[in-house]
Amino acid sequence: PPRRLPRALPVHDVVRLVETAGAVTAAGDGAALALRDRALLEFLYGTGARISEAVGAAVDDLDVDEGTVLLRGKGGRTRLVPVGGHAVAALRAWLVRARPGLVAAGRGTPAVFVNARGGPLTRQGAWMVLRRTAERAGLPVTGPHAVSPHTLRHSYATHLLDGGADVRVVQELLGHASVTTTQVYTLVTVDRLREVYATAHPRARG
Question: Using CA of residue 14, residue 181, residue 112, residue 105, what is the dihedral sign?
Answer without folding.
Answer: positive
